[in-house]
Design brief:
The protein is an alpha/beta fold. It has helices at about 10-30, 45-60, 75-90, 105-115, 125-135, 140-155, 170-180, 195-200, 250-255, 270-285; strands at about 5, 35-40, 65-70, 95, 160-165, 185-190, 205-210, 225-230, 235, 240-245, 260. The chain is built from 10 helices and 11 strands. The strands form 3 sheets. The chain has a 6-stranded parallel beta sheet. A 3-stranded parallel beta sheet has the order 3-2-4, sandwiched between helices. Strands 9-10 form a two-stranded antiparallel sheet. The structure holds nicotinamide-adenine-dinucleotide.
């Protein structure tokens, strides 16, 4: 049996279209246009591309999109003052500080300075706590995208064995919380896990968020499992360009799984769409509407 390829392009497009429709409805009913401000410090080329992409999709969805560009040598106080202004600005519903920040800046302190109700990246410890306690908050965009993909494949999560490989605050931990909230039996695996292949073979749902190209082999996958590959690994090509490879050996996994996300064309495309969804949610909640 060949697995279904879970197509991130189609799912992300559908989500962006739904957000755009709801943005227009919110503007018509309440006269409020959701606004996202991205703060970019320095001129890291990859960050520039990400920020441009976020700005374009935000504007395409009918939302207000602003980017504040600060020089690489910006000090902590200046950045915190910028965030303070955005926290106080009622036209700004979502604030995203593009990471990584230059070395002189303290990322955790910067994230903690963002109003948790504008933290559409879901990285503030208050939002991590809300997620852990099942309270409304903001979930980081990539894990949210993974869950939307899983919900398209699985009708009833209750009692399923889920294994999440990777325990970062950005990806692994929030995905595990979301799966737990769906009544899965969740195992978190990481670099110190003993016999990782055997742990992975238990999984009805296997999420790989490690950053090691093709770590997960076909014979680590339980036949019929749904596999979500979050990994983005750059494989250099002789012509100086690079190819993206996931954490799962796709050609092997596709022969064993029931459904699997490709890299590229999978989870990566969901992240920005979920950022738009979170920004819309922030604007709705400010109006006292349900998120
Ligand atoms: P991270 O480096 O913060 O965390 C990696 C985790 O993998 C750690 O918890 C570590 O314990 C675990 N790990 C490392 N080596 C391991 C091994 N040999 N076996 C088992 N576990 C191991 O990375 P992250 O920020 O969580 O990102 C993970 C991957 O997801 C990266 O490839 C990253 O580029 C990608 N990513 C993709 C998106 C997206 O939009 N698709 C977003 C964020 C991250």
């Amino acid at each position: 049996m060949t697995a279904k390829r879970i197509d991130g392009k189609i799912i992300a497009e559908a989500l962006r279209a739904r957000v755009a429709k709801e943005v227009a409805e919110l503007a018509a009913a309440h006269g409020v246009v959701p606004g996202l401000t991205v703060v970019l410090v320095g001129d890291d080329p990859a960050s520039q591309v990400y920020v441009r992409n976020k700005g374009k999709h935000t504007a395409d969805a009918g939302m207000r999109s602003d980017t504040i560009r600060l020089p690489a040598e910006t000090d902590q106080q200046t950045l915190l003052a910028t965030i303070g202004r955005l926290n106080a600005d009622p036209g700004v519903h979502g604030i995203l500080v593009q990471l990584p920040l230059p070395a002189q800046l303290d990322s955790l302190a910067v994230i903690q300075a963002i109003d948790p109700d504008k933290d559409v990246d879901g990285l503030h410890p208050v939002n991590a706590g809300r997620l852990a306690q099942g309270l409304p908050g903001f979930v980081p965009c990539t894990p949210l995208g993974c869950m939307i993909m899983l919900e398209g494949e699985i009708a009833d999560f209750s009692g399923l064995e889920a294994v999440v490989v990777g325990r970062s605050n950005l990806v692994g931990k929030p995905i595990a919380q979301l799966l737990l909230a769906k009544n899965c039996t969740v195992t978190m695996a990481h670099s110190r896990t003993r016999d990782l292949p055997a742990v992975c073979r238990r999984a009805d749902i296997l999420v790989a968020a490690v950053g090691k190209a093709e770590l997960v082999r076909g014979d680590w996958i339980k036949p019929g499992a749904v596999v979500i590959d979050v990994g983005i690994n750059r494989f250099p090509l002789p012509d100086g360009k690079s190819r993206l490879i996931g954490d799962v050996a796709y050609a092997e996994g596709v022969e064993v799984a029931r459904a699997i996300t490709p890299v590229p064309g999978g989870v990566g495309l969901m992240t920005v769409a979920c950022l738009l969804a979170n920004t819309l949610t922030a604007a709705r909640r400010r109006l006292g509407l349900s998120g």
